[in-house]
Amino acid sequence: MEQSALLVASMLAAGTVLALASLGLLINEKAGVVNLGAEGMMLCAALAGFATVVHTGNDWIGFAAGMLAGGLLAAALGYLVIWLNTNQFATGLALSLFGAGFSAFAGTGYVQASLPARAQHALPLLSDLPWLGTALFRQHPVVYLSVALALGLLWFFYRTRAGLIVRSVGEAPESAHALGYPVRRIRLAAVIAGGMLCGLAGAFLSVIYTPLWVEGMVAGKGWIALALTTFATWRPLRVLLGAWLFGGVTMLQFWLQSQGVQVPSQLLTMLPYVATIVVLALISRNPTWIRINMPAALGKPFHPGA
């Protein structure tokens, strides 16, 4: 029972990285912008967060640094694709490559660095409950924040006027522009907000989940997060559940190894990526389902003067 509780706890922690990044990409795509630069943004944010905690000893300042790094890179992406009308896919890929290279170059001095001792987090009383306490109530506050963000985005997009405006920009930007809404500024704000969440995901990865810095440590999680938004059909709660599912697949490899299952480690490491391919293959069998849920103007440039 204790091992299963630890597995669930690890699943939630692993899923938090994907949940934060996927929710950020969800905001981008709801506004009609495809962000293929999440991998590079998360790498730069992971380095920024880790380096900040090394020098300050404060995790929350590290999270802020990661969000700032993600926001700045997202702002650059937004300026290029929204104002200069560059191709969203090519620009996102370029940003991902830039982030991977820049973080590898700038992070060479932090490979051997270590962080201060981590504090143990537990909710009073609830953490003492049998099984549930270990599985659910001894998590880092950012894990609970990811749940609150999913619920908050659900309320924002479907219960507020501002959320309706963001969705309209992603569905019919010409109509939103005709009604007087500043489509490009709304899209830029959405891109920056999404980038900051990707930055928080990267900082959480390097500061809390695996408290170290190594080159390429995001290891494809940005791409999995991008696939997860489609898998969840652009719904915040489905994103959260999907992130936990993928987190469970990620932790399954370690659990199987601890149980002595004789499976090559390389095959177990492949599990999250195989799961991603399988999910995308299953979804692609029903293109109508994707078309109904996908923002109509996703990936399409908007020209106010057109």
TrEMBL record:
Alphabetical list of InterPro entries matching this protein: ABC_transp_permease (IPR001851)
Record key words, sorted: Cell membrane, Membrane, Transmembrane, Transmembrane helix
Chief location bin: membrane
Compartment list: Cell membrane
UniProt topology in membrane: Multi-pass membrane protein
A Pfam family it matches: BPD_transp_2
Any one GO molecular-function label of the UniProt entry: transmembrane transporter activity
Positions of transmembrane segments: 6-26, 33-54, 60-82, 89-111, 141-158, 188-210, 216-234, 239-257, 263-283
A single GO cellular-component term on record: plasma membrane
The keyword Kinase is annotated on this UniProt entry: no
Stated name of the protein: Nucleoside ABC transporter membrane protein
Source species: Brachymonas denitrificans DSM 15123
Native organism taxonomy: Bacteria, Pseudomonadati, Pseudomonadota, Betaproteobacteria, Burkholderiales
